[in-house]
Amino acid sequence: MRLIALLVALLVGGLLIYKRMGPAPVGQEPSVQTGSDVQPPGIPTDPGEIKQFQQDMNEYMKEVEEKRAAAIEKATSQ
User: Fold this and answer.
1) Domain carrying residue 70
2) In-domain check, residue 20
3) Which of 19, 63, 66, 68 is the most buried (most CB within 10 A)?
4) Residue 28 lies in a domain
5) Does 75 fall in a domain?
6) Rounded-to-integer distance, Cα 69 and Cα 39, Å
7) For the chain, what is the domain count?
8) How far apart are alpha carbons 67 and 78 in whole angstroms?
9) Distance between CA 43 and CA 50 in Å, rounded?
10) Cα 4–chain centre separation
11) According to the model, what pLDDT value does residue 44 have?
12) How many CA atoms lie within 13 A of 10 on its CB side?
């Protein structure tokens, strides 16, 4: 009887560990919070779009940097 109880406990423990560490369900991606309302550029799917993506990414980084600098300035001036 103890052996059966031990096997059931191990089975439940293994199931809980598998659920906790197992792969995420398909179609469910973790959300990324950038902390700003500026949306990052889309990832290019064509090799010809890489130049435009570089320009868009540079603009995005500058906008985010400006917003963070403004937030830091606002926080330190109080």
Assistant:
1) 39-78
2) no
3) 63
4) no
5) yes
6) 18
7) 1
8) 17
9) 9
10) 42
11) 85
12) 6
Alpha-carbon span 2 to 77, nearest angstrom: 67
Using a 10 angstrom Cβ sphere, with 0-12 exposed, 13-18 middle and 19 or more buried, the burial of residue 41 is middle
Q: Does some domain include residue 65?
A: yes
Tokens of 6: 């031990």
Predicted TM-score of the model (pTM)? 0.49
Tens-place pLDDT, residues 18-68: 888 877 666 655 555 545 577 888 888 888 999 999 999 999 999 999 999
Question: Which tokens is 51 given?
Answer: 């130049």
Q: At residue 63, what is the residue type?
A: E
Cα separation, 63 vs 40, in Å, equals 10
CA 13 remoteness from chain centre? 28
- Residue 43: which residues within 8 A CB-CB, separation 6 or more? 53
Q: What pLDDT does residue 24 have?
A: 64
